[in-house]
Structure of Amine oxidase:
Amino acid sequence: MFRFPASDLNVKYQQTLDASWALFDLKSELGVRELEDRFAPSSLEIGGKPYKFDKEQNYVEYIRWTLYISFTRTLGIIFYDIRLKGERILYKMSIQEATAQYGGNQRKAANTVYHDTYYSLGTNIGTLVEGFDCPWGLTFWNITYHEGNKTIVNEDSLHIFEADTGYPLSRHPTDSSNNYGFTNLVTVKVHVRLLLPHRFLGVIVRAPGYLQSSFYYPDQGKWGARIQQATQRSLHDHTITFKGDFDILGTSNSFQAPEIKAVNHS
């Protein structure tokens, strides 16, 4: 049970009801920095797309890689039958859960744990803006899911593109290049990116998120920063789990995860 001294209930702050302080505010009176009006760098697929995509089968070919893409309203995007040079590496790879657990010494902050699959990760995937959310000239396709007695179609919600990594690996005297193929989805809270370089497979996950605030008390500094007179943001952790069903050299293989422990030495 949380208890506060009676004196704390009498603390008053001049909290404004105008929420504009929480929004991006570009102050024109400060002027514009030199070159600030220039466009950001962008990738161009010169000479045509370096990948093939079958929208009917949701099938992708990129260099030595092939895979199928599926989608569910609970988990979002799922990758099946991922092969390198015709040999299956993964039968299935997908996100399983994304949680966010908050901290604090009052009920709202201390008891908040979000399990995002409860809200259906796939239904939060919205339309992407070309040139803003992703490079120009990429391949878009729609997602479809059912809700009640209706079929919902979110247009241009998934995309595929190739991008340069920015590393000068192409100067190394091998047959490598420094390009990656990407398959992306962006939800309200989670951004998942599948990397398909020439020789290995990778996944990048980013949680852009937004602030969940709580009422500010003077003794709550260790649980978050004060962002307004009576408002505090709460520290929190993101935990995202994936399922990877590997089929390397057949299906009768096992996986071993070593555990590393820190030991104090005198």
User: Anything to note?
Assistant: The two ends are 40 Å apart (CA to CA). Residues 22 and 227 are 9 Å apart (CA to CA). The chain has one helix and 15 strands.
